[in-house]
Design brief:
Helix 1 crosses helix 2, helix 6 runs parallel beside helix 8 and helix 8 crosses helix 10. This protein has 355 residues and is of the alpha/beta class. The protein has ten helices and 14 strands. The strands form four sheets. A seven-stranded parallel sheet has the order 3-2-1-4-5-6-11, sandwiched between helices. A three-stranded mixed sheet has the order 12-9-14.
């Protein structure tokens, strides 16, 4: 029987122990998750499967809709022949062929890597808007308990310095026609769509805005900065910085992020948006590369120009969340520092790529 990675399982166990008082309410429930083979969606499958195998007397049933455009079956192969987790190979923009009564819906199907959403702009927009509307309409027919929409911190664009850390009420500084707009603007429209399904129809929608989530399960060829730097280091290449190295990010380890996502979904704060990330440390790309080089050992750093013409276009200089709202209204407190998170991520990459 195929098993989930021990590193991911350890994170799942910690998430369960942190949230067990809240997770009791989902015993025996039925879930519909779009994008369940993706980086974030797959963690929900792992968490629900953990509860089924170790906690619940009455298991949850999970239906996962996945088209594998930017994900691979490899991440969820341990669910092959799982009695309670059913994978449907379909596109969320098409009519949803599910007859079961559904309690919880999570829309995690999206192309989140800039390299890939620049390659598939129309598909990105369709998943974030048409796919979302499909799921919202589906939820209207099912008397669901809660609906979680994955938005993004990209909706803030390149915030002004007085809006960093960035609170949820910042309206953004975003180009509507730039190379990143297919993702940023479709997520903004998605939020508008979702919150108005709550206001007009009472659908219990919550919205999360992830800030630079990383960790085990994020594809090494994802083309975002942490997997790029890790790939260079693990394959004993020079770590290539494709900018001046000065832009900063506040990276959030996936274990912490998932705790925030679950807390948002199971809260009573319908129609609300929550920043989910880590506000403890902004790190620039030079320091990030040096930290990864130090952990791996024997790796040099170089500066290069990306082969992608629009690689740096509309790329924000800083990104850091204001977590006041999430920390006040949810049981949310990120705990994993960047060095610990990178060590766990690198360990997972080594184990899964034979490095």
């Amino acid at each position: 029987m195929l098993k989930v990675s021990s590193i991911i399982l350890e994170d799942i166990e910690i998430i369960y122990n942190d949230l067990k008082d809240y997770l009791n309410v989902i015993e025996g429930s039925t879930w519909l998750i779009s994008g369940g083979a993706g980086f974030l969606g797959s963690y929900f499958l792992d968490l629900l499967n953990y509860c089924n195998e170790n906690v619940f007397s009455l298991p949850c049933k999970v239906i996962c809709i996945e088209n594998f455009l930017s994900s691979t079956p490899e991440r969820i192969k341990h669910f092959n022949n799982n009695k309670y987790i059913h994978i449907i190979n379909a596109d969320i923009v098409r009519p949803i062929q599910v007859d079961e009564n559904i309690d919880y819906i999570i829309h995690a199907a999206s192309i989140a890597s800039p390299t890939f959403y620049r390659k598939y702009p129309i598909e990105t927009i369709e998943a974030n808007v048409l796919g979302l509307k499909n799921l919202l309409d589906f939820g209207m027919d099912k008397s669901i308990k809660s609906f979680l929409f994955f938005s993004t911190s990209e909706i803030y664009g390149d915030p002004t310095k007085e809006n960093i850390p960035t609170p949820e009420n910042y309206s953004g500084n975003v180009s509507c026609t730039g190379p990143r707009a297919c993702y940023d603007e479709s997520k903004r429209l998605g939020e508008t769509l979702a919150v108005n399904y709550y206001r007009q129809y009472g659908l219990p929608v919550k919205i999360v805005r992830p800030f630079n989530i990383y960790g085990p399960g994020l594809r090494l060829d994802d083309k975002r900065v942490i997997p790029d730097f890790c790939s260079d280091a693990l394959y004993r290449k020079k770590i290539s910085i494709l900018s001046d190295g000065l832009p900063t990010r506040s990276f959030c380890y996936v274990r912490d992020a998932l705790s925030g996502f679950v807390a948002s979904l199971l809260s009573d704060h319908n129609g609300e948006s929550f920043n989910i990330g880590n506000d403890e440390r902004e790190i620039n790309m030079i320091d990030l590369a040096e930290l990864i080089a130090q952990i791996v050992g024997g790796v040099e750093i170089e500066y290069k120009k990306s082969n992608e013409m629009d690689y740096l276009t509309d790329n924000p200089q800083r990104r850091c969340p204001d977590l006041t709202k999430a920390k006040t209204l949810l049981p949310y407190q990120p705990k994993v520092g960047i060095e610990e998170g990178l060590r766990r991520t690198l360990k997972w990459y080594k184990e899964n790529h034979g490095l």
